[in-house]
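Researcher: Please translate sequence to structure tokens.
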Amino acid sequence: MPQPRRVLRRWRRTRPFWGGLLLILGGAELLLVPLSPLTVLVSLGLGGLAAIGIGLALITAGIFLWLLPQAHHYVSVNALILSVLSFAATNLGGFLVGMVLGIAGSAMGFGWTPVPEGPEGGEDSAEVPKVRDGQGTRTLAVLLPVLILAGLMNGSTAKAAPGDAIVAPRTPPTVTTTLFAPQGFTLAGVREIPTADGPLKVMVLRMKAASLTDYRLRTRDGGRELALGADTLDLSGSVTLYLTKFKGCLEGLLCLTFTPDKLPVPPVVPPFVFMTDVSAEQALVTSDLIVTDGLTLKASA
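Model: Translation complete:
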């Protein structure tokens, strides 16, 4: 049946067909979960009603991508929002399957670009660019979900690390505090920062804000040492810590030690985490605002 196949192929290439198909499959999966016999695992109350509503909306969005390809940007953005919302409003987004299908379909629909037709609409026309339909769509379909998930996981805006103009001390000063309470704490990885003796390997910790109680900092570079203290020290804005060592007791119970070669923490820490009896080696710290109470500064030979 070459003629019907040719007609179907031409129709498919003039619209975000695969993006619409994934949205329809994702919506169907969200519909089937609350209607399945898994009554123990699946919530049938508001979660079930939300799954039916979002599922029907995703199916409708997929059909709109097929019938109204010129509105693919508007339809894809709304479908993406519904797909992400399904994780909290339904049964974990149809146990993640429906949500992932919806995100992928939305990305493919948003990144779809129509292939120009030749003068007579023929596929072999010389003016038709020799580009396989959907290459750009596949690239965006891969990148957009990754960027979305990265944004959801990181929870804080990454800020560029200090440039080479900022030189850390040869020996990082020690910092102690009885209570370290961060907000939006994120482990941003390991990097090297410049010092007078060459590069220094440090951990990079980023957070939106942090509160420290009984803060004490002491230099240890072998010369005239300084001791900085404060009853409380509050950091806010884009806070970044560059540490060579970090030791403390998580929730006051589980004591851990972090080093650039030993990072026993996930990339993102829940917002309610705090640590007690903290001792750290701090190479650098940057913050938009620092507020202290009971600040003291002492020098020793």
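Researcher: Any highlights?
Model: Residues 39-43, 119-142, 155-164 have pLDDT under 50 and may be disordered.
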